[in-house]
Amino acid sequence: MVQPATALDAATPGPVIAARNLDLTFATNDGPVHALRDVNLTIDKGEFVSFIGPSGCGKTTLLRVIAALEHPTGGTITVNGMTPDAARIQRAYGYVFQAAGLYPWRSIEKNIKLPLEIMGFDRAEQDRRVRDVLALVDLEGFGKKFPWQLSGGMQQRASIARALAFDADILLMDEPFGALDEIVRDHLNEQLLTLWARTGKTIGFVTHSIPEAVYLSTKIVVMSPRPGRITDIIESDLPRARPLDIRDTPEFLAIAHRVREGLRAGHAYED
Amino acid sequence: MSAALTDGPARASWALTGLMRGVLPVLSVLMAIIAIWYGASMMMNRAWTLDQMQRQNIDMTPIEIIAAAMTQERPVLPAPHQVAAEIWNTTIGEPIMRERRGQMQGNPRNLIFHAYHTLWPTILGFAIGGFLGVLLAVGIVHSRAMDMSVMPWAIASQTIPILAIAPIIVVVVSNLPALNAAVDQGWISDDTKLLVPKALISSYLSFFPVVVGMVAGLRSPQASDLDLMRTYSASRSQTFWKLRLPAAVPFLFTSLKVSIAAALVGTIVAELPTGARFGLGARLLTGSYYGQTIQIWSALFMAAICAAALVMILGALERVVLKRMGARA
Amino acid sequence: MRAVGLAPWGLPALGVALIVWAALNDTRLALILGVWFGAWALNAYLSERARSRGVRLVVPLIFGVTLLALWEMAVQLYDISFVILPAPSAIWARMITETATLWADFQQTILKGALAGYAMGCGAAFLTALAVDRSTFLQRGLLPVGNFIAALPIVGTAPIFVMWFGFGWQSKSAVVVAMVFFPMLVNCVQGLKASEVMQRDLMRTYAASYPQTLIKLRLPTALPFIFNGLKICTTLALIGAIVAEFFGSPTVGMGFRIKIEMGRLAMDMVWAEIAVAALAGSLFYGIVALIERKTTFWHPAQRRG
């Protein structure tokens, strides 16, 4: 199942994502907004990294910088050892947005084929991959349906399937489960961990839920706003196989506590 | 985009970007249209000039040819400045009133006089159409039977090329016994009688946008808003006045703007096939009879100016009303 | 407080009272009112009780037939002058006897003048929208200007085009082109801008090229707007083609016939032409709406159930 999208990153021993002194300032009518200031971060291959913080802390902006959807105004960042733009053109990552963003005029199957068509996969390969990723997100038999005929959770799974279809080594997810209810969310979290274990992808995951961040991640990046910056980076030592009830263990609670402290510190600094 | 770091320049650069975003593109498009127009007018009028040149056996430099092509009396396509000059001459350059048979009357050489004769029925028709449109919309929203039976026909009525009926309406109305009797009794003048069919046609064109916009507006309150009214056990009329109508106001203005432009089109077209003597449509018609292209274009532009003015007046009214209703500018 | 309004039985009672009052004064009026209230009561009953698709079709049909019946009755009972309003039956009779003329006029005006102009005008507008698509500067300029021009009485250019292109159908097509171009252009430009930022970002993460984004994302999102433009333009095309004939035409065509028969006060023939125009207009609109339903089935406005 695990096959590198390009030979290049297999040959790159360094970190998958490396940011150094990253700055991003937006000019607005009300003056400059410091979305990111002095961000330093490395992410290694196969890590599951969560970005957590209150709104306006720059977690989504950071993810968008990694995806080359925004460009930093200072500092350097590399993805797979190259600029984010170069990585984007090599289709190094799949991106999952907060809303599913499926095209209503395409069936689920055709939605998943969208990136495959753009990247020029042949027909047979497209069909094979659609079948594989539908199985991966538990949506077999729904390929012919249209997005608006599915529930919100199913739509979000389909959008994850779409991001997985071209099998990039990096998966960037921007609050993908933010709009879903808790029960669906737990279920999808579990599935995401299984998927990650099976594929060994590097995952960047934006969330504002502490339990979600601690449950999923090997590394938790705590951020705070005005200016958007990193206040703490927590390496999680929880085992990789995580049943849902791990959330009641003291180890889990200890990490959650540290995350909460980090978030609070960010606030104290501001006041 | 320039980054603005302090307050003063921020405002200045904001004004600049505002200019870049709004005015500049529109101006460039307008300039392009005028340039294309000059080019086209050059191309289309040249033949005649060259022909004249040959007949009179004179030689002209290219500059002279261009100049001649731009100053013909009956050009195929008049140049923009010719039209502008004509508009100027027939508005500012002509008295609006003139003496005739010992009476002060409107001057038919003045374009404003014609615009007046078109605007009046337009506004009348718009008022009728707008009123009927609102009424119909209220009925449609409150009665299922009306919704199901009238709405499809209201839509179908607009797929009918209604302007083609204009001549019929003119004939029918001018033959209405009641109307003729009113003229004989001296209740209304002959001029007013000629105004009625124009107003009717423009009201037919203007009612539909209002119906559609108003139905959408009256239905725009969400289920939760309606539920709130239900918890107050508000009556239907209370719900209407306190919730549905205010919610519909923005929709109403949007459709009124569409509708008044349609009303103007209706009046002008009503003037075309009916041998009306006054009005912008009549001006178009006489222009086309005598090949006075400059006159045709100036009438067209006057119509455009009227349309713009009417829509702008409604826009201003809209801003005032919405502001008083507490909407943010 | 009791709501201000009529009790459920109020409206029917009012109707009956009105009919009785009319019967005392003028039996003919009572007859007309009777038919009207009868049909209305039927429709009110149907629309309240049943909500199937059949009812959705029958109710407006009853309404239309009632209108025709009232028209016929009014003309017959009140002896309305033929010039003011011919009865539907008279118009129908004329349509039967003059089918050949009507068909020839239809061909000249609709099939040649209107359709050719519609295709050229809408096609040109679409291509122009694509051409300015990559320049937001041009789009910003074109939208207000186009919106303004679309509101102008462009039919007024008809005499000019007749002067330029002669009396044949070509000049009618030219008028139609001028009339449909800007409404269509505005809709296309707006449609091409309609895709969401997130969906465009998605295409960027795929490093999709401009044509790929256009074909796979922006054209599909533009479709509802494009169809809106196409629908508006169907009516405009017919109006343009017919009205342009008032300014000069060969001795065939719907506008020509309307003008000539008006002069002869042959109002039944004029109304017959109008009926054909109405049918053609509704059919034209219906076909475009049908294609829209087939191609934009996914749009919330088109989804059923």
Structure summary:
By secondary structure, chain B is mainly α. Chain B has helices spanning 7-55, 62-69, 80-91, 111-142, 144-159, 166-174, 177-184, 190-218, 223-231, 236-271, 280-289, 293-324; strands at 97-100, 103-106. Helices cover 76% and strands 2% of the residues of chain B.
* Major pleated sheet of chain C: none
Task: Please estimate the helix content of chain A.
Answer: 25-40%
The helix-strand sequence of chain C is HHHHHHHHHHHH
CATH class of the largest domain in chain C: Mainly Alpha
Write the layout of secondary structure elements.
The complex is a heterotrimer of chains A (271), B (329) and C (305).
Chain A: H1 7-11, E1 17-28, E2 31-43, E3 48-52, H2 59-66, E4 74-79, H3 84-89, E5 93-96, H4 108-118, H5 123-136, H6 152-164, E6 170-174, H7 182-199, E7 202-207, H8 210-216, E8 219-224, E9 229-235, H9 250-270
Parallel strand pairs in A: 3-7, 3-8, 5-6, 6-7
Antiparallel strand pairs in A: 1-2, 1-4, 8-9
Chain B: H1 7-55, H2 62-69, H3 80-91, E1 97-100, E2 103-106, H4 111-142, H5 144-159, H6 166-174, H7 177-184, H8 190-218, H9 223-231, H10 236-271, H11 280-289, H12 293-324
Chain C: H1 10-25, H2 27-49, H3 53-78, H4 88-97, H5 99-131, H6 136-150, H7 158-165, H8 169-192, H9 197-205, H10 210-245, H11 254-263, H12 267-295
Key traits:
heterotrimer, A: 271 residues, alpha/beta, Rossmann fold, 2 domains, 6-stranded mixed sheet, 3-stranded antiparallel sheet, 9 helices, 38% helix, globular, disordered N terminus, B: 329 residues, mainly alpha, MetI-like fold, two-stranded antiparallel sheet, 12 helices
Explain what this protein looks like in three dimensions.
The complex is a heterotrimer of chains A (271), B (329) and C (305). Chain A has helices spanning 7-11, 59-66, 84-89, 108-118, 123-136, 152-164, 182-199, 210-216, 250-270; strands at residues 17-28, 31-43, 48-52, 74-79, 93-96, 170-174, 202-207, 219-224, 229-235. Chain A is an alpha/beta fold and 271 residues long. Chain A has two domains: 7-92 and 172-270, P-loop containing nucleotide triphosphate hydrolases (Rossmann fold); 98-167, no CATH class. In chain A, helix 7 (182-199) links the parallel strand 6 (170-174) and strand 7. In chain A, helix 5 crosses helix 6. The longest helix of chain A is centred in the last third of the chain and has 21 residues, at 250-270. Chain A is globular. Residues 1-12 of chain A have low confidence and may be disordered. Chain B has a two-stranded antiparallel ribbon. Chain B has helices spanning 7-55, 62-69, 80-91, 111-142, 144-159, 166-174, 177-184, 190-218, 223-231, 236-271, 280-289, 293-324, and strands at residues 97-100, 103-106. Residues 1-10 of chain B have low confidence and may be disordered. In chain B, helix 4 (111-142) packs antiparallel against helix 5, helix 4 runs antiparallel to helix 10 and helix 6 crosses helix 8. Chain B is mainly alpha-helical and 329 residues long. Chain C is mostly helical. Chains B and C meet through helix 1, helix 5, helix 6, helix 10 and helix 11 of B and helix 2, helix 3, helix 6, helix 7 and helix 10 of C.
